[in-house]
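Key idea: predict the complex, not the pieces.
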Amino acid sequence: MISICVKLFAMAKDLAGTGETKLSLPEGAYASNVLDHFLKVNPKFSTWKDHLRVAVNSEYVDLHHPLHDGDEVAIIPPVSGG
Amino acid sequence: MLKIVRTPIDLDEVLRSVKSPEAGAIDIFIGTTRNHSNGKEVLSLEYEVYEPMALKLMEAIVAEAHRRWTINRIAIVHRVGKVEIGEASVIVGVSAPHRREAFEACRYAIDALKKDVPIWKKEFFADGEIWVGSQSDILGHP
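Result:
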């Protein structure tokens, strides 16, 4: 198993009910598995799934990005700075 | 100068940070908070940031602006937390030997920031609140 830290922001934080959580995933897990986890936590995530981006250690990645022990994974809803 | 601040942005500080004897032009963009959104009155706004990633992406924007245009200095300051209506939420400053590069690099920097930098705006109305960009009408879901 690997242990990762997940950060959630804005709409994703509201849906998950938390801004930060630790998650244990099997070795060989992908970024998509983190999204899958939150779909189970709150089915409403499915509405936004296509609009969420994932960042690993502060870099945007695609959903096939492999995760490693100690990674910081962020769930990034549509940004609206400026 | 690259900064995320939680108090009003100091325009003079931005200006001082981009001033250069090499420059023939300084372009300043100020993004301010609107009192209306989709026909509804906005009472106040709040910004949230994923700060380490935001600063990293802002550094990348600065590097790309220097790569694309002949500019002297560039500053990006974004305010987060509660921001009152009509206040500056972001200021971008660019100095360059000539105005065309200053205008273009400044526009690139604010456009790139709005597209990718992990900052979120929440608008508060009399009857509720929304995260801008995550409204169901924009995303096309019920």
